[in-house]
Specification:
Its cofactor is FAD. The chain has helices at 34-46, 94-104, 119-125, 192-209, 231-237, 266-284; strands at 8-12, 24-31, 51-54, 60-62, 67-74, 79-82, 85-89, 106-107, 128-130, 137-139, 144-151, 154-159, 178-186, 188-189, 244-245, 248-250, 258-260, 293-295. By secondary structure, it is of the alpha+beta class. It folds into 3 domains: 8-74, Uridine Diphospho-n-acetylenolpyruvylglucosamine Reductase, domain 2, CATH 3.30.43; 79-209, 2-Layer Sandwich (Uridine Diphospho-n-acetylenolpyruvylglucosamine Reductase, domain 3); 211-282, UDP-N-acetylenolpyruvoylglucosamine reductase, C-terminal domain (Uridine Diphospho-n-acetylenolpyruvylglucosamine Reductase, domain 1, Alpha-Beta Complex).
């Protein structure tokens, strides 16, 4: 057994994901501060046990057979302000940061309103959303100043360039010995009402265009964007909206979402992903690449 206080065994991961899908983790530990997080990572590394850092549980599909190793539920949520800088631990939830920024009249994070993500997850995926005019994309890297990471067991203060941000990409996809502990965001003073208006506009757009979690559980967009075309439009063009396997269904509202209609399994979702990829490739010649992470055993 790992030397971690309050560690649990054989914990179902489904309730901790936005998909509400997934088997059990061998070990489950909640890190409530950076000391907990660092110790848990080092303990698992020492014992050569696989690790998965769980934030809000979005943008992932956990296999039906669960995760062989230690899942660390990152609840390191402390934040603090220093003039126009926001320093947030990696387990902090982006929506909570947005609320805190509104109170301070600080702008930059409101563009990501309505997206379920922790700070760590936002950095991993280079969280993004459409600009206010809906003509371009705003990435979270645009407001990142620096970070505190654990690399090969050592704490390091790093600049933005360290993260090697790309579209749905960062160093965290490529180096399994790097863990985000804390991020410093550089924000701008702005009228609170203008910030609130932008939040409302973004939430309205998302509610109109995308299936919401209160409607059907999902992991968000399944496939990476194809520049100038859009994955969802390709899937829709192939007549796949409403295509269903078991409890998994291509959303009628937005074709790049595969939603859980009730009791969907990871196998259902994987099978539907395969069918969508095969059909789109055959009918359009475009190869869809998943943007979500597949966690554990399927």
């Amino acid at each position: 057994m790992l030397n971690l206080r309050d560690i649990k065994s054989n914990v179902s991961l489904a309730p901790y994901t936005t998909y509400k899908i997934g088997g059990k983790a061998d070990y489950f530990f909640t890190a409530r501060n950076k000391t907990d997080l660092i110790f848990a990572i080092k303990e698992a590394k020492t014992r050569q046990i696989s690790i998965f850092i769980l934030g809000t549980g979005a943008n992932i599909l956990v296999g039906d057979k669960g995760f062989r190793g230690l899942v660390i539920h990152n609840k390191t949520e402390n934040i603090k302000f220093d003039i126009n800088f926001l320093i947030a631990e990696s387990g902090a939830v982006v929506s909570d940061l947005i609320d805190a920024c509104v109170e301070k009249g600080l702008s930059g994070l409101e563009h990501f309103a309505g997206i379920p993500s922790s700070v760590g997850g936002a950095i991993r995926q280079n969280l993004h959303f459409l600009s206010p005019d809906r003509r371009s994309t705003i990435f979270i890297e645009s407001v990142v100043k620096e970070g505190l990471v654990l690399e090969k067991g050592k704490e390091m203060r790093v600049g933005k360039e360290y993260f090697r941000f790309g579209y749905d990409d960062s160093i965290l996809h490529h180096d399994k010995d790097v863990f985000v502990l804390e991020i410093t965001f550089e924000l701008e003073k702005r009228d609170r009402n203008l910030i609130k208006n932008q939040i409302e506009e973004n939430l309205k757009w998302r509610n109109e265009k995308q299936p919401q979690l209160w409607e059907f559980p999902s992991c968000g967009s399944v496939f990476k964007k194809i520049e100038g075309i859009g994955a969802g439009r390709l899937i829709d063009k192939c007549g796949l909206k409403g295509k269903q396997i078991g409890g998994a269904c291509v959303s009628e509202k937005h074709a790049n979402y595969i939603v859980n209609m009730g009791k969907a399994t990871a196998e259902n979702v994987r099978d539907l992903i395969n069918i969508v990829q095969k059909t789109v490739l055959e009918q359009t010649g475009f190869k869809l690449e998943p943007e979500i992470d597949f966690i554990g055993e399927f």
